[in-house]
Design a protein that fits this description.
The protein is of the alpha/beta class and 289 residues long. An eight-stranded parallel sheet has the order 1-2-3-4-5-6-7-8, with no helix packed on it. Helix 7 links the parallel strand 7 and strand 8. Helix 4 runs parallel beside helix 5 and helix 7 packs parallel to helix 8. It is elongated, with a radius of gyration of 21 Å. The termini are far apart.
Length: 289
């Protein structure tokens, strides 16, 4: 079977549906020589049922040690909304330590699924240069998970995309505040229900020289006021495409309240508690009896 010798497998822009996904899974199951470096399965009208076959195959390959050399993974336009499906995806990603490119655009992952995925990528230690999490129904809570991942990639990330979500200014700011990268060249954050709060954070990022090599940033379909639009245009010049769909009358930032912020603070509590315990244990270890 030639499948065991494959280094690259691409199947995309087809109308295979769930049955085609099942067939693709059977091919993947035979890639047993740990030679795969490049996997693309995208835009196949897989829907939820078909997408299950993809994550099952990836998890199986990971458990048999056959994803260790994968550097490129494109799974755009699948449906990973079910908890079991995005959990299997996260399990697979933990084994992809050499991954540099991942495209998860339009995968319906949502906040909790994205938390699993981002944690898995951090565990893998993958030095990503390209990360796309656009179109995944992410709110400010999901942005928090993405921000933690991005913070770990500051030394390698070249292109970052998270457009067509619902992160709001609060979520966008969470991500922008952790960016401090000499390698980052492109940021795409269009259509994220953001306004001046996000705009100011982005301007601060530049004034603090945290993206010295940025060549392009996309911020269309927000609700920046005229003053902030002017500052962004002056700051970025040709690096910023026209924001012709900016709607300053929408005032996305006016809808922000403390409810989600409070819930996110609660989410932080376990981490804070763990750090406190670790600090206490460290201090006790220094006590001489």
């Amino acid at each position: 079977c030639i499948a065991k010798n494959l280094t690259q497998i691409h199947f995309y822009n087809n109308m295979s549906g769930p049955k085609g996904c099942e067939a693709f899974e059977s091919i993947m199951e035979k890639c047993t020589e740990n030679k795969l470096t490049d996997i693309r399965f995208s835009s196949t009208r897989a829907r939820a049922g078909g997408s299950t076959h993809i994550t099952t195959a990836l998890k199986s390959l990971a458990e048999s040690g056959n994803l260790e050399h994968v550097t490129r993974l494109d799974l755009a336009d699948n449906t990973f909304s079910d908890e079991s499906v995005n959990t299997d995806l996260a399990t697979a990603l933990k084994s992809c330590s050499k991954l540099t490119y991942i495209n998860l655009r339009d995968c319906c992952i949502a906040n909790e699924g994205m938390k699993r995925v981002c944690n898995a990528l951090k565990v893998s230690g993958a030095k990503l240069t390209h990360l796309d999490v656009s179109g995944n129904d992410l709110t400010a809570s999901g942005a928090r998970s993405v921000a933690k991942l991005v913070a770990s990639l500051n030394s390698t990330i070249v292109e970052f995309s998270a457009e067509e979500n619902e992160m709001t200014s609060r979520g966008v700011k969470k991500i922008v505040d952790v960016i401090n990268s000499q390698t980052l060249e492109k940021i795409v954050m269009n259509q994220n229900e953001f306004g001046d709060i996000a705009g100011r954070a982005i301007l601060d990022m530049v004034s603090e020289n945290r993206v010295p090599n940025l060549t392009r940033i996309e911020l269309n379909e927000g609700s920046f006021t005229e003053d902030v639009v002017g500052e962004l245009v002056e700051c970025f010049g040709d690096k910023l495409p026209e924001m012709d769909d900016n709607d300053e009358d929408t005032e996305h930032d006016a809808d922000l309240d403390d409810e989600e912020e409070e819930s996110e603070d609660e989410d932080d509590a376990p981490e804070t508690a763990d750090r406190d315990v670790d600090d206490l244990a460290g201090a006790l270890s220094q006590v001489q009896v």
